[in-house]
Amino acid sequence: MTNWAQYRPGSAAFTPENIDPFLCTHVIYALATINSFNQITPIEWNDQQMYSSLNGLKNINPALKTLLSVGGTVNGVSPFIAMVAKPESRADFIRSAITYLRSHNFDGLNLGWEYPGHNGSPMQDRERFTLLLSVSFSVEPAHGVTLSLKVTNLLLSIYSFVIYIKH
């Protein structure tokens, strides 16, 4: 579900209250971003309230898993570019992300970076993104956190899939 869907006119507006918690096994909440301190930060004024409503669905269906998607652009630039630039900032992001996810009752993180090495991102970011993923598996508090990636083919952008890695 997207945080901007709440602004659709009339009956097209969509919030966590519109979700049947038995319809899916996983729900991804989009979208949060990354601040200059390499920490997840909400975008909309009511995101934290929406997090609570979405994760409250787990009281109805305890098997439901929720993930928070991080990505988008800030002033036209991916927030991942600065974060992946140094090993320390990658490690800081993963540690703070785990704390953020747990404090808001999310089961995992969806990394929605389109596209490392393109759209103003240097080609080295492809390798840096891979290094980010390897750091995410080495951080001890990450145990039990699901990591998903949005992977989109640049040539055939209509094909998109998500992989889930249970750490």
Automatic annotation (TrEMBL):
| Xref: PROSITE patterns | GH18_2
What is one GO biological process annotated to this record? carbohydrate metabolic process
Spell out the SUPFAM superfamilies in the cross-references: (Trans)glycosidases
Q: Which Pfam families match?
A: Glyco_hydro_18
**Every GH18 domain range:** 1-167
Its Gene Ontology cellular component terms are: extracellular region
Top-rank taxon, per record: Eukaryota
Name the InterPro entries on file. GH, Glyco_hydro18_cat, Glycosyl_Hydrlase_18
Designated name of the protein: GH18 domain-containing protein
The source organism is Oryzias sinensis (Chinese medaka)
